[in-house]
Amino acid sequence: MHVPDGFIDAPTSAVAGVVAAGAVAVSLRGARRELDERTAPLAGLVAAFIFAVQMLNFPVAAGTSGHLLGGALAAILVGPYTGVLCVSVVLLMQGILFADGGLTALGVNITDMAIVTTVVAYALFRGLVKVLPRTRRSVTVASFVAALVSVPAAALAFTFLYWIGGTTDVAIGKVATAMIGVHVLIGIGEAAITALTVGAVIAVRPDLVHGARGLRQRLKLRVDGELVDAPDTSDSEPAVPAPAAARSRRGLWITGLVTSLVLAGFVSFYASADPDGLEKVAADQGIDRKTEEHASADSPLADYGVEDITDARLSGGLAGVIGVGVTVVAGSAVFWAVRRRRTDDTSPADTDVSA
After folding, report:
1. What is the mean pLDDT of each run of 10 residues along the chain (355 residues)?
2. Is the dihedral of CA 302, 75, 59, 258 positive or negative?
3. Which candidate, 241, 205, 243, places its Cα nearest to that of 222?
4. Which listed residue, 4, 204, 237, 239, has the most CB atoms within 10 A of its CB?
5. Ordered structural domains, the chain, with CATH
């Protein structure tokens, strides 16, 4: 659902940019409360994983494909504020390096794909977790439903922005019907990917899943092949020895990174070549008549291929690997900086200045 330049007029794009900038600023502040030495590395990995899975377009209808948006997944794994930042980092890397999503439309894309999906998904997720039995399975079920709803919500948000500032004269009712219809189908794929990923992380490190915190049922942590009680942040002493927990975190991080590299570098070659939901609707309804050339069209990585490499498999795979690497580095740098800011802000309060 990457909106290119030319779909939305300049004034609306500018307002969306202001909204996006404000949301990112708020998220930077909120993420300081969500990130610690355990979750900061995971946040950078989540951004890289979202980048990788977004390369895997899956067929949803005749001549139409879909891909992960990632807002629900990021919010549930690392928190809503950090989730907005994760998806924003991905969109920034895609726009600058891969000419995917217009640069003048970056505010529109962040508003639509990062803010709307994260807010809608996390609000619904928290509501479901409160009414469902507080178990690991409930977290997975709530993840599925939240992710499913977040995608048509993003489609509705785009429709609203197009209604305000669309550059072509197309009946808004037709746009809404087409966008929401196809993105409900895409939402099913989003829900499946989100639930499987959240369930997989909960199975090995439930203490790292932001959305699983506060469960009454004590979750288990697999350490060296054995299940032990997961750490409870309310306890003064950790339930798992720090070295074992650190090894488990490193194992999860390495596994996640290798998975992301394999998905982007190899599996992406087999992704559907059909246009995604927005591209298909835009072509069918005439929304794309005023599409502008991307400012990064001359990038050596434009269209997820490496310039001057003629072998399509090698070119696309190498571009995917580069994208994962750049995203994990950029994301990790952002989240470590946020965590360091949190540490700097709390240090004075921890200092005893009494006489």
Report:
1. 94 97 96 88 95 96 93 97 97 96 96 97 96 91 98 97 95 95 97 96 88 65 62 46 68 93 96 95 93 92 94 96 97 91 59 42
2. positive
3. 205
4. 4
5. 10-345 (1.10.1760.20)
